[in-house]
Write a structure and sequence with these properties.
By secondary structure, the protein is of the alpha+beta class. It folds into 2 domains: 5-134 and 298-310, Diaminopimelate Epimerase, Chain A, domain 1 (Roll), CATH 3.10.310; 139-289, Diaminopimelate Epimerase, Chain A, domain 1. Helix content is 17%, strand content 39%.
């Protein structure tokens, strides 16, 4: 029988203060000795949207690799959130002050990046809100499908498209998203992607493969906006994480003619009110430029610690 090494991983629900909400992600705080094949096999076994593997450096610098069940993927806002929170909550990083900086280094080829996150310390010593900082640059395309085309591909009425002078835009901060303002929370929840209408519209030519819907009616929730992703690769019953679209969404907000220069803070809810919700806090420094610094914050909950045998 082959000898196996035991590794501990922690599961955190991120962008929520409530257990069994947000997005559940497993984090290995010490992945030393694991091969690429083993990390891929573990990720396939755990079948989470992302499995995070960490390697300690010096001065609170940590290298990170992220896999889904099929292959290695770039670092995401959710992965950095989970890694930072778990490191702080489990004591792998000591919270020596009210705000402790953790530097996450992602070395995936072609997607190298360094992200600084700041973990606040609660009065009882636990990890509190985690905030990440990103410098982004947006490319904005004002040529989008018509209101009628958008309504058809979302299975909505044309009257459901648009509010408060927000307009549909295609925004890319590395990955293009078709971002569509929707009149109400209820309309967002009722939307269903219509692939035939999508294919017959101008949308596929934009290279955007996902549609971010947003409304400012959050139905008595603390967020300023409610958001949901739809697209040809997203099943009708799914409500996937929106972390990858946050930078594009912030740039869309800054493009609004009534949003003045300066620092703005807003909350975004993902997930239905009666389902698994996430809550993001976004702070942006609007200089009325395509270059934008954003800070993405949120809470997390430590749900479990588990040992896994790896041969």
């Amino acid at each position: 029988m082959n000898q196996a090494t035991k590794y501990t991983y922690y599961t955190a629900d991120v962008f929520t203060e409530q257990p069994f909400h947000g997005v559940a992600l497993p984090v290995f705080t010490d992945a030393s000795g694991l091969t690429d094949t083993q990390m891929q096999n573990i990720s396939n076994e755990l079948s989470a949207t992302s499995t995070i593997f960490l390697y300690a450096g010096s001065d609170n610098h940590w290298k990170m690799r992220v896999f889904n069940k099929d292959h290695e993927i770039p670092a995401s806002i959710h992965a950095v959130q989970a890694a930072s929170y778990v490191l702080a909550q489990t004591g792998a990083v000591t919270l020596e002050s009210r705000h402790t900086m953790i530097t996450i280094i992602s070395e995936m080829k072609g997607h190298e990046q360094v992200i600084n996150s700041y973990v606040s310390k609660k009065e009882n010593g636990d990890a509190g809100i985690v905030q990440q900082t990103y410098d982004t640059h947006a490319a904005i395309d004002y040529y989008t499908p018509t209101t009628e085309e958008l309504a058809a591909m979302l299975s909505l009425s044309p009257a459901d498209i648009g509010f408060d002078h927000y307009r549909p835009l295609i925004v890319s901060c590395g990955v293009p998203y078709l971002i569509v303002p929707i009149m109400s929370y209820n309309a967002i929840r009722e939307a269903k992607f219509n692939e035939a209408a999508w294919s017959n519209s101008s949308a596929p030519m934009s290279l955007a493969q996902e549609i971010l819907l947003f409304a400012n009616n959050t139905d008595d929730n603390p967020a300023d906006f409610h958001a949901r992703l739809l697209g040809p690769a997203i099943a009708h019953h799914e409500d996937p994480p929106i972390g990858g679209a946050i930078a594009a969404f912030a740039s869309h907000i800054c493009d609004h003619p009534h949003v003045q220069a300066g620092t703005h803070v807003f909350g975004i809810q993902r997930g239905a009110n009666d389902a698994r919700k996430s809550l993001f806090y976004v702070e942006m420094d609007n200089q009325q430029s395509k270059d934008l610094t954003i800070r993405v914050g949120g809470h997390a909950v430590l749900m479990s610690d588990t040992r896994i045998r790896v041969a």
